[in-house]
Amino acid sequence: MIVLDGGLATELEARGHDLSDELWSARLLADAPDAIVAAHEAFFRAGARIATTASYQASFAGFAARGLDRAETAALLRKSVALAREAATRAGGSRWVAASVGPYGATLADGSEYRGRYGLSVAELTAFHRPRAEILASAEPDLLALETVPDVDEAVAMLAAIDGLGVRAWLSYTVAGERTRAGQPLDEAFAVARGNDQVIAVGVNCCDPADAAPAAALAREVSGKPAIAYPNGGQEWDAAGRRWRGHSRFDPDTLGDVNYAGGCCQVRPADIAALAATYSL
């Protein structure tokens, strides 16, 4: 079993950084890159083997609103991979970097990634994701993380967007019980990756911890791929206040038999250390 990292933004906030704006952790790519390196390194030293980059919410439109042109935005996307690679070098050993490709809804900064169904076609979503995926792939990460995907249409679009880029990827949905956030059955969702040689794992992330193990087991069965699960702490996301409410219920013992395991929002290095210790037994 390969241990993933936890919530990068959560760790950055815990270290005193205000991430309440629409760019979330991506803002620090320009404003505080050393902080991103330090947060990645903390997860590596806790036992993570893979760091997921600070590119989840990065977009051309988002950075354009801050006065950055496409070339400057592309440079920051590539920088997200370089910063994670720097942390991996500092931590030593065999470490991987997964370039985060978040859903379209994440760039809207209104909680849409937990609903899906944006009113865009698969072709339109593919056109949105392709330029960002191309730039991230050009930075030579070990993997692309197609993550927090709320519905099947966007998964199909994201897989089309990375086709031919020459970088392996995992596909992980955000789910609610036995359905995607958009309401589709999970067997339908996981099936879209079956037979796709570019995809190395299929599963879930940023979901309730109780939903992770059964969904990941189904992902393995339906897709024929290794299973991945990295739930959040189980709190409720307040889109208007841009904050998580409640207390963490993350428990390494509940993740089940998965090939890749980690955490998402509200999961700290101490949680990853506990997960690494649990799965090393």
TrEMBL record:
Gene3D superfamilies per record: Homocysteine-binding-like domain
Every Hcy-binding domain range: 1-279
Pfam family, one: S-methyl_trans
InterPro entries in alphabetical order: BHMT-like, HCY_dom, HCY_dom_sf, Hcy_S-methyltransferase
Binding positions for Zn(2+) per the UniProt entry: C206, C264, C265
Enzyme class (EC, first level): transferase
Cofactor(s) listed in the protein's UniProt record: Zn(2+)
GO biological process, one term: methylation
Name of the molecule in the record: Homocysteine S-methyltransferase
EC number(s) recorded for this UniProt protein: 2.1.1.10
